[in-house]
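User: I'm putting together a small comparison set for a docking exercise, and I want a reference complex before I start. The sequence is below, and the ligand is adenosine-5'-diphosphate. Could you produce the 3D structure with the ligand included, as structure tokens?
Assistant: Of course. I'll restate your input first, then give the structure tokens for the complex.
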Amino acid sequence: MIVMKFGGTSVGSAERYQSVAKLVGGYREKQPVVVVSAMSGTTDWLLNTARTVSEGGRNLPEPINAERLIAEFRSRYKKVVEETITSPEIRSRTFSAVAAQLHHLLRLLTGIEMLGELSPRSLDAVAAFGEKLSSKIAAAALQDAGFQAEAISTEELIVTDAAFNKAVPLMGPTRAKCRARLLPLLEKGVIPVVTGFIGATEEGITTTLGRGGSDYSASIIGAALDSEEIWIWTDVDGVMSADPRLVVQARSLRRISYAEAGELSHFGAKVIHPLTVLPAVEKGIPLYIKNTFNPEFPGTRIDGSDQTAGGLVKAVASTKNLALVTVAGSSVLAVPGIAARVFAIVSDQKVNVYMISHASSGHDLCFVVENKAAQPLVQSLLKEFERELARKEIESITADSQVTIIAVVGAGMRGTPGVAGRLFSTLGRHGINIIAIAQGSSELNISLIVAADDEKAAVQTIHNEFLSLVGLSKSVRHHVESWTR
Ligand code: ADP
Ligand code: ASP
Ligand code: MG
């Protein structure tokens, strides 16, 4: 049995739903469990609409209400169902299912509009409709192509905590529910088509796993069912040596380790959600990243094998919208307990730290956090260190909101001297200033901070230096080509 997840662009239109049905049908003997994202653009629309109605359209020129906003959305879905499904009977059933979902959505949006208030819990309830609609259409497309299929919401399958907008799955109850509900269907030859992205608390309240979370859903379900493989179908040829939007020469990697995939996704390779590898690692289930627009292409295999042999640097990733917080002063790290107090505040505010660094002189303590968390954090730190600031033990606490982290990833760097040196001199030659640097103790990843404006140039320069085939000797070129395509 395998789990197959289709992302937003893979189900972006009627034609795409039909291709997915054909593709899945072709793998029927593998007993696929299908996980679908919302149609591309839908989740953004739902989140924006919930915010707009909660503000009563205050910033818009004309008064706005949920009823009016949903009309256009309804016609988009009506058209997709019309164009996807050919059988009149299946089509009319799907129209009813979609209409029932939209009716429920409208009631929810009207409630939000009337209250003028939007809680994280309500936001999840609204955001979940994209995947619910998509699973209905994808299951109907499979039926229309002659297969037995059933749409199921993962509110029935994935049990999470109540951390709305970024819920954490509880694997014990999730495993029990997935097995009880899905295994009998598979035995009967039915293809389950389940929603990505969403779950529910033990009390049955809808939650979501965070943006891009459908990949994570696929791997949660794969682990719960002990599936042989988990296939993530997307719109590019697998995990590539760089974001293809930044580097046109980026190449698809044939095979990488869970650890490398984890690092790359954590530092911005959007192709898989950062938590996707975790459930798979625990069960040793290989993940494949494949392209729905190029299904014959093998894509990338992600597994637990040691990947030190496959080249020095495998890929470069970057993360935007970050801020560098600096606690500066001649004795910042000399005064005992300052770092501990700084990170206690960070942890109190539940802020995620991407990287920590301090100058070799030991004066400044710098760390990188999400941009939107930076200002509130600086305010709390200023309050916490009021006395130290007055006594000049700390000179300043500031946030520079225009930075990017560039992560250079590859298990082959482990124990190979000189990579960092080569990295710095290449960037230096191209006039790119490095603000700070950190290396993980696993030596899988070197991360650098550069100004946000330098992101593209830095990624391209690093890719040219370590991953370009141009200028390599024949034997080295042959070696690089053996692990990429
Ligand atoms: P889906 O809708 O299928 O989940 P996403 O848009 O979330 O797809 O992720 C796929 C996109 O990730 C690609 O179109 C590509 O632009 C981007 N991406 C960023 N870094 C990488 C990388 N290293 N390899 C492949 N794709 C990447
Ligand atoms: N639809 C959700 C999102 O846009 C989840 C996903 O596509 O992975 O974030
Ligand atoms: Mg995605």
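The pocket of aspartic acid (ligand 2) is lined by residues 7-8, 37-38, 43, 130, 196-197, 211-214 (CB under 6 Å). Residues 326 and 366 are 4 Å apart (CA to CA).
User: Thanks, that's exactly what I needed.
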